[in-house]
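QA checklist item 7 of 12: single-chain prediction sanity check.
[x] sequence parsed
[x] length recorded as 217
[x] structure emitted
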Amino acid sequence: MEGDSSPPEKRKHHKGGSILRYEPTNCNEINSSPFIRQCFEDVSCLGFCQRVGEVGFHELLTDWIATNLKGEKSTIAGIDFTFSVAAISLATGIPNDGEYWFKCMSLDLEQYKPFLKSPYIEAHSHLIPFRYLLEKYAPLMKVVMKFFTCEGRFSRLYQYDIRLLIHFTAIKPLNLCSYLCISLIKISENVRIKNKEDYPSLFHHSFIKVVVLHQLA
């Protein structure tokens, strides 16, 4: 797949509006900023993102893995692929350490403050407009969202976006391998309700392919 990244994938209409997915296929945005590149290096994620640029992705593979995932294992054509936290760390090179945290967990609003412009520093909600973010962090936040939540719409920020930003600015480590593991399990659960109106699009294509290729090697 050529170009800077795949085109956003539109999802069905949703009560929050149309949802877009956007997954990079290279590290151009990371390399365009010394600050962003250093942040990715500091949390040992640069190598994974470079690998993403090398492997691209295969949407049908994502569908197979998600559809057949049982616990942390997916069996395709008689071959078992493991997506445990340890297996993800081994395949991606992302360290298996830091806080175990996922979207359903709470985040203290005090932790938002270092990243917000002064007029909005007293945030009263976990959902905030993207424009509240300090200019210094806005490009970094967008790149992190593209690689790890695969977001294609940047008008607002959720608490999980801020938690990722806390990780990538080395304030408080997040176990990103656990985060990706749980995210894939949630995708698999949602695949099983694909006949419902709110069926979400598949994502994490490149992450899945990186793990599969590593285990086939």
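[x] summary fact logged: Residues 1-18 have pLDDT under 50 and may be disordered.
[ ] second reviewer sign-off
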